Amino acid sequence: MTEPVVIDVWSDVVCPFCYLGHATLEAAVRDFDHGDQVEIRYHSFQLNPAFTGTAVSADDYVSTLHGVPKEQLDASHEHLTARGAEAGLDYRFPQALMVNTLDAHRLIHFAKAHGQELPMVERLFRAEFTDGADLSDHAVLADLAAGLGLDRDAALEALRTKAYEQEIRADLDQARAYGITGVPFFVFDNKRAVSGAQPLELFRKALDLSWQDRAAQPA
Question: β-strands 56-57, 185-188: how paired?
Fold first, then answer.
């Protein structure tokens, strides 16, 4: 049997391009003739690892940190909102919050251990960009886990005890080894990389080429 195509994805849940890239990749897999033989694995990446304190407006944070004028930020949001709508996403940028995402990544690893990695990634993106949720709040994160049928108390315990620290650090170390400085970043079978929220056709091509490589391997 042909081995599955493995796609490793580095992303951060406060990255709007990561949300779009996530949706576009999933659409490409759904369209792929061998989509049932594709494995997607998410890895932790932090765009703002030094962020401390309580949640703040993401727009205010970006404007202050990078000096982006409001008009430029609004234009970027308008463009991304339109692209997102085409992919079925509902961006609501004015209510998005900037937080330290370490615990959100911890929750993804918790969900992965219970077979719910991709649904958890999707739910966290929607919580950030549509619901305006505070993804640094343990109660909020535990509620999101419970909404997927996971044990809320177990999720809280994982967050309280800083579980999966080794797994998160391994993800971050691998990102550095690959030279990843921005996300989303997709690696197909450890051979081909796609950087950024690229068009659907590019993901389809990467899948086709990866499948051809797998099919050419001896049994």
Answer: unpaired
